[in-house]
Amino acid sequence: MGTWTAHFIQRILDARRRNGAGNAKTLPSVTQTGANPGTRGESKETEHGEAMHRRELGTNPTPKTLQSVGRMAAMRNQSGQHYEAVLLAQEAFLGSRKAFGEQAPHTLDALSNLGSVWKAQGEHEEAEKCFRGAFKLRHDKLGPNHPDTLTSLNNLASALDSLGRAAEAGRLYQECLERRCNTLGSSHPDTLTSAGNMALYLRTHGQPAKARELFEQVLVGRRKIFGVRHMDTIISMNNCASVAMDNAEECRRKCDPREETRQQHKAEALLKEAVVAGSNYLGTRHPVTLRAMNNLAGLHKDRGQLDKAKLMYEKAVAGLRAAQGDKHLDTLTCINNLGGVLRSLGEVDDAEECYKEASIGIVEKLGDLHPTSLSTLYNWALTLDELGDSASALPLYLHELDHGPFTGECGSKGSRGRSKRFVFGFRFIQTKKANHRAGLSSHATHAMAEAKMLTIEDLIFGPSKERKSEEKTRKRDELVISCLRSLAMDAVQQANSGHPGTPMAMAPVAYSLWARVLNYDPECPHWMNRDRFVLSMGHASMLLYGLLHVAGVKEVTQDGLLTGKMAVALEDIKSFRQFGSKCPGHPEVGETGVEMTTGPLGQGVATSVGMAIASKWLASNFNKPDLPLFGFDVFALAGDGCMQEGVSGEAASLAGHLKLNNLCWIWDNNQITIEGNTAWAISEDIATRFVAYGWNVLRVGDANDVEALTRAFLSFRREQDRPTLIVVDSHIAWGAPTMQDSFHAHGTPLGEKEVAATKHIYNWPDEKFLVPEEVVGHFRQQMLERGGAKRQHWEQMLATYRVQYPQEGALLQAMLDGQLPQDWDRFCQAFPADAKGLATRQSSSACLNSVAKGLPWLIGGSADLASSCLTTLTKEADFLPPASRWGHFGGRNLHFGIREHAMGSIMNGLALCKLRPFGSTFLVFSDYMRPPIRMAALMEVPSVFVFTHDSIGVGEDGPTHQPVEQLCSLRSIPGLFVFRPCDANECLEMWKAVVPMKDPVAVVLSRQALPTLDREKFASASGLHRGGYVLADSEGMPNLILMATGSEVHLMLQAHEVLAGRGIKVRSVSMPCMELFKTQPQDYIDSVLPRACRARVSLEAGRSDSWGALIGLDGEHVGMISFGASGPGKRVQEEYGFTVDAVVMAAARVMRGTPQEMSSRAQSLLSWKKRRLSSYHRLPSL
Ligand SMILES: Cc1ncc(C[n+]2csc(CCOP(=O)(O)OP(=O)(O)O)c2C)c(N)n1
């Protein structure tokens, strides 16, 4: 069986298992689907037919039976029952395959049919697979010019086009057209179909003139062959009419009314003809006829012929109701259009009916925050208002004001190529908002004053008893929110420092998320599949501490043991920001419930992307169809600061690209930062930026609206292939009588008086640190009911998993426990001695790949330098969304793009979710990712930062690419281990040392080849595990010690030979990791660097700063003082003093007790500025 077929069948089986359809008998019952309002009279007949065919399918399928099942699929498809259609088409395909073989014509027909139903369902990847499969098989069997092959080619092109692979699609359409033209002639019906497809493609891809020409040719051809009463001719009429309408629009823009009218007439004539022919020949329910009616109605409306438009829309609605059902989106959209015409005609009652029906239907289908819903609801509001029912109109207006800012309709709608949605700028939104407010009728304002507020739920779903009884719940919600707000005020006041404003503003947001949405068990906060909550604006830490306390989250030790105590007790909150408190100024990971350390703005959101990737990766690698162990969502709360930091943009761009639909950022849009109003520093439209990144952007206009917030979170949960940004408009220090909306409330205690006044406004007792039991109970219960239950279910699943999949279960357990798989290093092999050697980036690459084989959760990538840094895992797939067709979510090679900063943060996110991440770039660009490297060290997560091109040895690229200060600068980060191995075997030992470490490391590698040392002659590379070791020595106590790392070790050994030849008792020390060396017992340190020997020279193609402690005052460093220069690597190294002579001279100086003075080094730095190439060893002071 071909691989595509195997893969494909697996997908079908998986889908069927997911849908609970294990075999033909378990297809969804037709009676059930018949109950669907979308199905009408045909259901009984269909039911009977399907049942019969399924019976035959099981026993003795004939081509006829299978074809009929295929036809049933097509019928279901047409009536909008896509899910059933897919199942039937799958059935037909599998049945044919089994009965007649993979390449049989019936099987291939069934496969194409399946492609079509997938396509209709919007599953373009699946459709593409089917069409490609059918094309390949037909191509091989029937040849490239066979009509069936070309039909498949055409289908494939259309699927590719839907996947956004336009160039490929265009090529295939063209090929298909040419082949048909050559083999069948230009007037053959198939050739005309191809030409029609090509024209459609050209029209949607910006070549309207060519498209028009082709469409017209096709229409002429079809009229000739088929006459007027044929579906294809009518389709052509529709297409030509659409082009004419495009032209009319163009003329309107160019202010050419005469031509505009001419084009409109042309379109009208064509559409009338299409409607008449369609109605007579295809029937009034046929989609082609309905499309013509809809277009004609739109045209009438545009031309102000409202009566005609009304008539046509009514016909179209009737047809759509009959053909697709009342609840089909096309029907509802058409009803909405009819509403528009009725309203323009002054038939407001009828218009209101239309809008009401359309609104309810569309909201049910798309949710109340979808742009289409919002515009329909707004139309409804207008008619209600006009009818004087302002009380009903008001909530709809407000809903539009609050949630409808980001998308709008451009131009007119319909199939005239102008239905593209586009995004309005924020400034526009503000204006729109103001206009709408001004536009509220006096009735509505009056109703608002009366506060007789209906909710939007009342209008959509009707007043419900259930919701009325929620009044009590709402009161309790308010209590929890007030409690969180008051705790923040009290703690900041008591500490006399901290940030009260944002916790006060964001309390309802965090509460609705935690209480109603987050899958999080307060009893077991380290449960692996919990949803992650990242407080990216770390300064608002009191919000997190409040949540942890009031939700009653339990403490977990660093070893993962539950202590039974509270994670954050009231006493801890009382000692907020005090030395040793569990509630430090900014949240620090390691304290229970803190998912990551935050404070540097932007890091939290960027790291959350890594967490979301981890969730996808875990799901893809461990989940089984019946045991979906992983799939947690990641929520990050961000402030204006986070959104302004560049790293959030990098990370968001990647998240959008990766289609991480499990990621939700919530932006506290309070327009306040430390200096004052955000408008002083930023004017771009952030929300629109996110839309451009490919995010789903929602807005909640009031941070206190718990219901709207909850709906927004649920809307995030429904999103299929985009991350979600929820913009929440808020007021810093909400409720504080003098401090609300003031930047002073950002980071200053409010003052006792203000705190008391604010509590009064909250209706909260003026008592410090008050947490009533009722409040805890209400919050905790909601979390336990959802998160607690899910966690328990998860643990059962895990237990079953371990039994059913013992091997994967054991690996998973090791990962969860922070252990390594057994014999993880079994693929690592030593390198033979070799004078020519390998660049350490090459030997490291080999080691990385060996390690990856034994450590399945090692995952990483590069900031577009994988081919230079050599960090690709060669046998592994790419981590990309399946829709991209380039990879999948189980892949282990990440493509970070040129986003070093985000790469570092994302790596940390992966590490926080127990994966082992690596990421690579050139050493000089480590500066671009210093913040996350520092964060990794601070959080003690084992991210592996791989840096190649480690010195002036880079050569020709010049000083911009030659790191000089980076080694020392990285070494100055506490807790970071910087490795710079000297050859292939040190590389190997380095990876063996690095993998078991729990701390972050920087791995620094050469671009140029370095000899692989003969370890018979020199000490074993296993000395690396002590950070530094004696590589070459002389008899007895040395009177000179040389030390070096990486490429300079080889220079050191050459100098060693010269010096030893002169009778000097010299010792050469390889120092691949200074930090590790410094943690060795003092005895060992003294044995490598005896105190008695103070004549020491260190060699490293970098600044001297980190060597001071090792060489002491009497030693000297042969290294870089200035930046490097462009030129061949060897030449540059010589020019900058990396020669045996220079080392020998330095040795002579330190042995004389006269190391080079500091002032002479400074001289050379100044001279660099004047003469870029003045070499270190030729300076006069030497
Ligand atoms: C990278 C970084 N730069 C600067 C700061 C200092 N800082 C802390 S909060 C803040 C203002 C943040 O404003 P916003 O995110 O709107 O928070 P809000 O004022 O709403 O609390 C700044 C500049 C920081 N923590 N991190």
TrEMBL record:
Residues annotated for thiamine diphosphate binding in this entry: H539, G599, P600, L601, G641, N670, H746, F925
Site for Important for catalytic activity, residues: H499, H746
Domain Transketolase-like pyrimidine-binding: 838-1012
GO cellular component: a single term: cytosol
Compositional bias per record (Polar residues), positions renumbered to this chain: 26-36
Keywords: Magnesium, Metal-binding, Thiamine pyrophosphate, TPR repeat, Transferase
Single GO molecular function: transketolase activity
Cofactor annotation comment: Binds 1 Mg(2+) ion per subunit. Can also utilize other divalent metal cations, such as Ca(2+), Mn(2+) and Co(2+). Binds 1 thiamine pyrophosphate per subunit. During the reaction, the substrate forms a covalent intermediate with the cofactor.
Cofactor(s) recorded in Swiss-Prot or TrEMBL: Co(2+); Mg(2+); thiamine diphosphate
Binding site for substrate: H499, H746, R841, S868, H949, D957, H961, R1007
Record EC number: 2.2.1.1
UniProt binding sites for Mg(2+): D640, N670, I672
Segments of skewed composition (Basic and acidic residues): 41-57
Family annotation (Pfam families): TPR_10, TPR_12, Transket_pyr, Transketolase_C_1, Transketolase_N
Region spans: Disordered: 19-64
InterPro entries assigned: THDP-binding (IPR029061), TPR-like_helical_dom_sf (IPR011990), TPR_rpt (IPR019734), Transketo_C/PFOR_II (IPR009014), Transketolase-like_C_2 (IPR055152), Transketolase-like_Pyr-bd (IPR005475), Transketolase_bac-like (IPR005478), Transketolase_fam (IPR033247)
Alphabetical list of SMART domains matching this protein: TPR, Transket_pyr
Keyword hit for RNA-binding: no
Enzyme class: transferase
PANTHER family in alphabetical order: TRANSKETOLASE (PTHR43522), TRANSKETOLASE 1-RELATED (PTHR43522:SF2)
Subunit structure and binding partners: Homodimer.
UniProt protein name: transketolase
The species this protein was found in: Effrenium voratum
